[in-house]
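README: folding subset

This subset contains proteins for which both the sequence and a predicted structure token string are available. Records are stored as plain text. Below is the entry for N-acetylmuramoyl-L-alanine amidase (258 residues), shown exactly as it appears on disk.
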Amino acid sequence: MRVLCLALLLIVLAGCVSGPRIDTTHTARGQSSRVQYIILHYTSTDLPRSLRLLTEQEVSSHYLIGDAPATIYRLVDENRRAWHAGDSQWQGRTWLNGNSIGIELVNQGYRDTPEGRVWQPYSQAQIEALIVLLKDIMQRHQLAPGSIIGHSDVAPQRKVDPGPLFPWRRLAEAGLMAWPDAQAVARQQALFNPSLPTVAWFQAQLARQGYEVPSDGELTEATRNVLAAFQMKYRPARYDGEPDAETAALLQVLNSTP
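--- output ---
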């Protein structure tokens, strides 16, 4: 009898340890991926130190793409949260670690010299590997074009990565994001040249893009930083944060594109 009781007790305990028995034969129709955005970064250092920082410290990312060779490393499973975005906001959503996939590219970023800031270019192989990875992620999570954003987009007051040499247009050519039509931009720029819109107009248009931006109508440092982030993405030849006719035209065309 004692042996029988012990056996029954072990069976009960085994059931408790294994957790509840869950029936998974029914699946809800109303659901979607938790992933809404893919956020791109550069590491500001070389591959060995990038791997150490992203695996041994508090900061992390789902993927890291090396520079030579352009190896894709998966560091965090996509169904788990990686700590890559920090204090961030896009399209009214905040703290984006919980609903985004972070991709870091090995790149030194910039160095300041007496002649000015010098940025490191990305290798062609790196960008090709990134595009393949982005297409795969977007297909699996059913993300719409435009879901790919930069760290500087979601945290323009403190971040500048992936920087002005990141080839956003290459992503557009691969069908991953919208790009403003050059002829439409030229027509709009001609209309804006005689008289620029107000700062409040720029702020409203930037907010429509998804940026967190003041709405006070003042050209403050915070507004300049957001303007610079937008310019760095769509007009990297000059990203001084100054409102001008070309920036206005780019915003107008992008926000008018279906």
